[in-house]
Amino acid sequence: MTRRQFSAAFALIPAGLHAAETQQERGKRVIDQCIQALGGDAFRQMPGNLQTGHAYRFYEDKIAGLAPAKIYTKYLETGQPLRELQRQVLGKNDDEAVILTNSDCWDVTYRGADPIPAERVDEFRELTLTNIFYILRARLNEPNMSLFSRGAEVVENRPTEVVDYYDADNRKVTVWIHSSSWMPVRQLVKRWDPLIKDRRDEMTHFTKYRDAGNGVMWPHEIQRDRDGEKVYQLISDSVRVGAFNDSLFQLAPNVKILKK
After folding, report:
1. Is the confidence at residue 247, as pLDDT, over 80?
2. Residue 38 CB-density burial (10 A; 0-12 exposed, 13-18 middle, 19+ buried)
3. Which pLDDT does position 13 carry in this prediction?
4. Cβ contacts of residue 209 below 8 Å, gap of 6+?
5. What is the domain partition of the chain in residue ranges?
6. Confidence check: pLDDT of 5 > 60
7. Does domain 20-249 have CATH number 2.50.20.10?
8. In angstroms, how far is the first alpha carbon of the chain from the final one?
9. Is the pLDDT of residue 59 over 60?
10. Exposure check for the chain: N or C terminus, fewer CB within 10 A?
11. 44/123 Cα distance (integer angstroms)
């Protein structure tokens, strides 16, 4: 069954059946719909993807930096706490990259490999563990995971279903899912900021979905706001599903290791 046929069949289900659902049942149904729209088994089993385009950073809603971007992501079947490897090439030189793994994280330049500070590693892990696409791809079968529907809501002139996700460590992610395309529209995470000793609202918006290969749908524009101010944007010219060699996420044998 295609995504369009699936959505059409779903729309024919009597409203009374949905009305009898619990919050947990409705949340699970909406998430199942979302996974089906993103590609179903092809999405849940994709080995990785490559996002190619431009990355922008903002300060006080003004561009503070931009660079050509290639972001390689590889999903693992096992691993703790993450089952994801990432190589971020920000610039024109593919040999200079940020490599992020469970154990070692490096900033590789012409000078050598610089160990990434612990706070940046923690930030990467938290961003990944609370990313709705990583959650849908890798985390739904974790113990003590729960989903709760908050019902329907119109956001940015679009009808959505709102679902709260909780993990065993009490992380909470709220995701708004379009109620006809069933694609994630945005997500909200409240993160603790040790600098200001308070929680900050981090909202991420997802737009311009296109087929990334094998029927997997992926957003080509991703924007992250912090307390209402834009801080990051990734605009992809292309996103392709693919499998990548482990060596892409490892240091070259002859690279110089710099001191912390």
Report:
1. yes
2. buried
3. 54
4. 181, 183, 217, 218, 219, 220
5. 20-249
6. no
7. yes
8. 53
9. yes
10. C
11. 24
